[in-house]
Amino acid sequence: MMRSLIIGTGSHAPPRVIKNQDLERIVDTSDEWITSRTGIKERRIVDGETTNDIATKAAKSALKAAGVSPKEIDLIVVGTVTPEMLFPSTACFVQSHIGANRGIPAFDVSAACSGFLYALDVADKYIRTGIHKKALVIGVDLFSKIIDWKDRNTCVLFGDGAGAVVLSAEKGKRGILSTHIHADGHYWKTLYTPLAICSSPLHHKTPEHSYMKMQGNELFKIAVRTMGEACQEALDRNGLKAGDISLLIPHQANMRIIKATGERLGMPEEKIYINLDKYGNTSAGSIPLALDEAVKNGMVKSGDIILFAAFGGGLTWASALVRW
Ligand code: UT7
Questions:
Q1: Whose CA is nearest to atom 7 of ligand 1?
Q2: Which of 88, 222, 270, 320 falls between 20 and 30 A from 94, CA-CA?
Q3: DSSP H helical ranges for the chain
Q4: Helix, strand, coil abundance in the chain, percent, nearest 5
């Protein structure tokens, strides 16, 4: 049976660091509040770079790690809700910037913070059909462009970042074992950005009306439930128990959400990868950025079972189980 093997990872976080102390000068907040309520200490924010720039950098580093030429890539899928343009898609720009072949399919999927796992799900399904052999899957978001820097409820949570993986069609027991994607549009008001390009400008009375809106408490509870359910679904599908997992790489939104998800599953803390202290919530960039770090830190070895789980605007939630 054909599976998608992750043969290379890459990421890019902009070099400009914004610490909690820097935010104390912008809004009524404190390092103590942000650290204790979220676990975040600092985040990266672009300084002139665009979504296409950082997605391309992540893609190039993943290709290098995989030892794969851009000409070998036959599918590009990008998860993002902060594209540089309404169209062309970020994937089309990446195709051109990395020098991939003309004519291969390249498209974006919109699932907010679940965007990378949605993109992985789509690419995996194309590979399993035997149609595509080498796919580039990217998660990228620049939430610094859509948050209200005067709103302390949201501006302390997010950062910019991108991560990418190269998938190769291989036979054998290693690779993506299963992916699980879900959505419930009834909850859309818990997290959304009403920057409505295709509706009347009268819709937005002031620029503030177009920034991201969030019902943090409501979202917190749904996140713990859906991430837990998605993880359990992935385990059940593969006949595995939490004890079989080598590493859980969750969406990096809030330390308390991550810990609650781990507790629900009965996962020890040392088996949960956390880097949100350095990057905040980078939305679709979050999981592939964490994966790339974990790989580079030597925390992922051949044969390891890696579990990914995310939730985000939509609402959407997703998981994936991989034998490395
Ligand atoms: O990828 C999905 C993205 N979204 C999320 O992951 C959000 C999920 N939700 C959360 O992470 C948490 O709900 C938050 C971190 C957003 C908030 O934490 P909380 O423990 O749920 O706090 P809260 O909203 O109940 O607010 C507690 C207090 C409030 O003050 P009062 O009403 O008790 O006086 C807030 O006004 O904390 C206040 N507060 C702040 N204080 C200092 C809210 N934001 C801040 C802030 N600094 N940045």
A1: 216
A2: 320
A3: 20-24, 31-38, 51-66, 90-98, 115-128, 152-155, 216-237, 255-265, 276-279, 286-296
A4: 40, 25, 35
Are 2-172 and 177-323 in the same CATH fold? Answer: yes
Is 251 assigned a catalytic role? yes
- In this structure, the strands spanning 305-312 and 247-250 are parallel
**2-172 CATH choice from 3.40.50.300, 3.40.50.2300, 2.60.120.10, 3.40.47.10:** 3.40.47.10
pLDDT tier at 203, thresholds 50, 70, 90: low
Question: Do 212 and 143 meet the contact criterion of CB atoms below 8 Å apart?
Answer: yes
Mean pLDDT over residues 232-260, rounded? 97
Q: Is the pLDDT of residue 228 over 70?
A: yes
Distance 284 CA to ligand 1 centre (A): 21
The CATH class of the 177-323 domain is: alpha beta
- Pick from 75, 247, 212: which is nearest to 142 by CA? 212
Residue 51 has pLDDT above 70, yes or no: yes
Burial of 119 (0-12, 13-18, 19+ CB in 10 A): buried
pTM: 0.97
pLDDT for the residue 299: 96
In short, whether 40's Cβ falls inside 6 Å of ligand 1 is no
User: Which amino acid makes up residue 81?
Assistant: V
| Tokens at 277, concatenated | 């202290």
* Stronger pLDDT, 307 or 206, i.e. the higher one: 307
* Model confidence band, residue 1 (pLDDT cutoffs 50, 70, 90): confident
The confidence score (pLDDT) of residue 181 equals: 98
For ligand 1, pick from 29, 43, 220 the residue to mutate: most ligand atoms within 8 Å of CB: 220
Which of 37, 217, 316 best tests ligand 1's pocket when mutated (most atoms within 8 Å of CB)? 37
